[in-house]
Amino acid sequence: MKNATLKREAGLLDATPGKRMYWSIISDYDLKTGMCELVDNAIDMWVAGGKKKALTINLTLDFQRQILLIDDTAGGVKEADLRLLVAPGASSNDPNAASIGVFGVGSKRAVVALAETVSIKTRFSRQDSFQIDLTKDWLESDDWHIPHFKIPDIAAGATSIELSALRKSISQEDEEILVAHFSETYASYLLAANFSIRINGNLLSAKLFEHGPIR
Hints:
The protein is an alpha+beta fold.
């Protein structure tokens, strides 16, 4: 008790995380892991929304332009929740729940790990459509503020994520790897009538094993 009376506040320390936290995880994600994070996020949003509409996930690997594009109909993100797309640790989800919530930590790390430039477009229900751009310049700056833009409407309840300036080039082999992996990983979902995944326009079917799908 005597020592406690000698403690005096000397000031406040700034605990804002540095952008290096993004760079430190780039090596932890390959294409397969990163894209699974984004698919998982879409599924979580869909489940949180009560699965009211069918969930369609389209993944495009553009080999000529070296661009990855993933679109989903999981419901979109409200304007008030747009910060969840970029703020580390921020989530609309119950911390005790099983899902990762709206664009969870894994998804944020995945997009940075896969590409230098990320464009996210989203429209919640039939409200306005918005876009956020994550760029190399933003990642290298100390400023955490990032603008969001109102854009012409995309499909209601949709989110589109475009990754360009990829950190590793993609090829036909990557498409084949993703088709095989997604067919196994999401087999239990692919069996449902209201769920589908397409890769470069090709509809995936569930790949089952003796003891059921891999999860």
